[in-house]
Write a structure and sequence with these properties.
This protein is of the alpha/beta class and 214 residues long. The protein has one domain: Rossmann fold (3-Layer(aba) Sandwich), CATH 3.40.50.620. Helix content is 49%, strand content 12%.
């Protein structure tokens, strides 16, 4: 596994005892709408980044950086456990479970366990804002993860705010990706070759600045 860093507490301290919801976040643009909606409802949030499906390493770093830009702008605490595991997603061939369901399971199970460890009673995910994600699967797997960890999974259909959230991300100057995250999804993107060129340039910049492994 290519590890970016261990665990990162981004600028804003938080008190687990006064936090209502751990919100798993895949990226800044997908967080824009759910975060604002949940805060309007009075939810006290901890944003949590855990996405080993986001590959390669340069892309994982870029999405985390942009999520942290957003949480800094919104004065929200953000914990990150970034890691990049391309081999798991490239080699997945379980006839009993699709790659996408495995991806949901890995991240939602981890979110449920993290919520329990931190003493936060519930968790949710910004994946619920995307019109391209399988909401039935997310609801099922999130519920199973919650039951196993002894916390609550908060299901919300945020899809009606997807376009507005993307517009907010554009206004905030956030990077908006053009593939889901794993290398198989990159290969399926119509922007594949351009994305690869951009990532090669980004990796080269990181190498020159000495930031390959932070």
């Amino acid at each position: 596994m290519n590890q970016v860093r261990s665990m990162e507490d981004h600028s804003i301290k938080f008190d687990p005892g006064s936090t209502d919801l751990l919100l798993h976040a895949c990226c800044g643009p997908c967080a824009e709408w759910p975060v604002r909606q949940l805060r309007q409802e009075g939810k006290r949030l901890l944003i949590w980044y855990y996405n080993p499906n986001i590959q390669p390493l340069a892309e994982n770093r870029r999405r985390l950086d942009n999520l942290q830009r957003l949480t800094h702008m919104l004065d929200l605490p953000c914990l990150a456990e970034p890691g990049c595991e391309p081999e798991t997603w490239l080699n997945w061939a379980d006839p009993a479970e699709s790659r996408c369901r495995m991806c949901y399971r890995r991240r939602l199970n981890a979110a449920a366990v993290k919520a329990r460890e931190l003493g936060i009673p519930a968790f949710s995910t910004t994946l619920l804002v995307s019109p391209w994600q399988d909401h039935a699967a997310l609801r099922e797997i999130g519920g199973q993860a919650a039951l196993a960890a002894g916390v609550d999974f908060i299901y919300r259909d945020f899809r009606d705010g997807y376009k507005q959230g993307q517009a907010m991300a554009k206004e905030d100057g956030l990077y908006r990706q053009r593939y889901c995250g794993c290398l198989p999804s990159l290969a399926e993107s119509s922007y594949c070759e351009k994305i690869k060129r951009d990532l090669e340039a980004l990796s080269a910049q990181s190498s020159e600045s000495g930031n390959d492994h932070i």
